Amino acid sequence: MCAAEAKPVVTRFAPSPTGYLHIGGGRTALFNWLYARGRGGKFLLRIEDTDRERSTPEATEAILQGLRWLGLDWDGEAVSQFEQKDRHAEVAHQMLARGTAYKCFSTQEDIATFRAAQEAAGASYAVFQSPWRDADPASYPDLPYVIRMKAPRDGETVIDDQVQGRVVIQNATLDDMIVLRSDGTPTYMLAVVVDDHDMGVTHVIRGDDHLNNAARQQMVYDAMGWDIPVWAHIPLIHGPDGKKLSKRHGATAVGDYQVQGYPAAGMRNYLTRLGWAHGNDEFFTSQQAMEWFDLGGIGRSPARLDFKKLENLCGQHIAAAEDAALLHEIEAFLAAAHMELLTDAQRDLLSRAMYCVKDRAKTFLELIEKARFALVSRPVSADAAAEAALDTVSRGILKTLTPRLQTVSWTKEELEPILTEIAAAHGIGFGKLAAPLRAALAGRTATPSVYDMMLVIGRDETISRLKDAAG
């Protein structure tokens, strides 16, 4: 029986702290977060740290930091799976008492002998059948044992999956899996089910590489008489070439995208849309995503990473963001990328410049480059193209311009006629004058408008930079 639909929604994300937070894991966490938050439910975090040799505190912190950057908050404290090992063992012994599990004293040699005999008999695949499954406890030897659950020998196990549909597994292919090792430690298959049950998880939303696990885990639920959660196994993310995502495709860690200057809102939007659809909507806010997200919108085919679409969405989110929030995230980006942090004066100037630099910037790196005019100190260094624009004639024109700027009101309406007049007096269009002005003010030839730069940095700084460039 599946009674999860009648309960308040509880989802979970359960990463293993053996490395960074993969982009696929980030999307899985996001789907769980959106589904829970959109229904007033809970989103829980469990660190599956039972692999003591490979699990590290550094990896755990990297996962937490990746989730924080994505803006995915979880309810309560993160749960350590390893710390629940006594509870897992307790459930294994409860299964013994219920008769749904048994002690198995077979050795590795016994299992190898069984399989060799099956192969000799022509069996292409042999599920180990323990001789201890129905043995009289009075015949148990005083030897180490494992606890195996009693899998059904015939019939089929059905997984009603919200993404993959009805999945049928023949029980003859399922072995009596070990739930407790001979050293008393639980196996992954048992630990996951016990944790999900104890945490009240109603919906298990995870990668479809776990789909085969669902049949075996569902038997644990049945063995304990527990409600089975709603299953939703989502396809994995592939690279642009359709192959399994790897480092050859570019960044695979969530943290790498922060360091490359992508805004979190844009990343959330893109990852939500990666394998899920709401009509033809591409750009949407996180609030809209929470309201719209459902399991029925998830496709069955692997999604392909598309960096151009990611950049396009990120550019839209940068343009739409509130200036104060954008400034805060840019400072977090600079810290994460180990770049030079903003001074108080630069922070003020960048805030003032935001209106003219955030349009059409796809990343924070691009935005900072556009805002270079507001962040540099005199003397402004020019690149090759800007240096070429500051020829002898142009420098002479700048010299005639600076006195006219001393007393004019500092508005575009007052500045525009003066610049136009200076250009006409020298027999050139304004476009010809704009190039050396850009070079003088920003050290670049591709910049925001000349008027925007002059208004942001102010009269005194503008005149000083023009004088520096004029020589």
In short:
With 471 residues, the chain is mainly alpha-helical. Helix content is 47%, strand content 10%. GO terms for molecular function: ATP binding; glutamate-tRNA ligase activity; tRNA binding; zinc ion binding.
Report on the architecture of this protein.
- The protein has 471 residues and is mainly alpha-helical.
- The protein has 4 domains: 1-78 and 235-320, HUPs (Rossmann fold), CATH 3.40.50; 91-180, Alpha-Beta Complex (Glutamyl-tRNA Synthetase, domain 3); 322-375; 384-470, Arc Repressor Mutant, subunit A.
- Helix content is 47%, strand content 10%.
- The protein contains 20 helices and 12 strands.
- It has helices spanning 23-37, 57-70, 85-98, 108-120, 188-198, 211-224, 254-259, 264-273, 286-292, 307-320, 323-336, 344-357, 364-370, 372-375, 384-389, 392-401, 412-425, 430-442, 450-457, 459-470; strands at residues 10-13, 42-47, 79-80, 101-104, 146-149, 156-161, 165-170, 178-180, 203-207, 230-234, 237-238, 303-304.
- It has a 3-stranded parallel sheet. A 3-stranded antiparallel sheet has the order 4-5-8.
- β9, α6 (211-224) and β10 form a beta-alpha-beta unit.
- α18 packs across α20 (459-470) and α19 packs across α20 (459-470).
- Mean pLDDT is 94; it is low at 1-5.
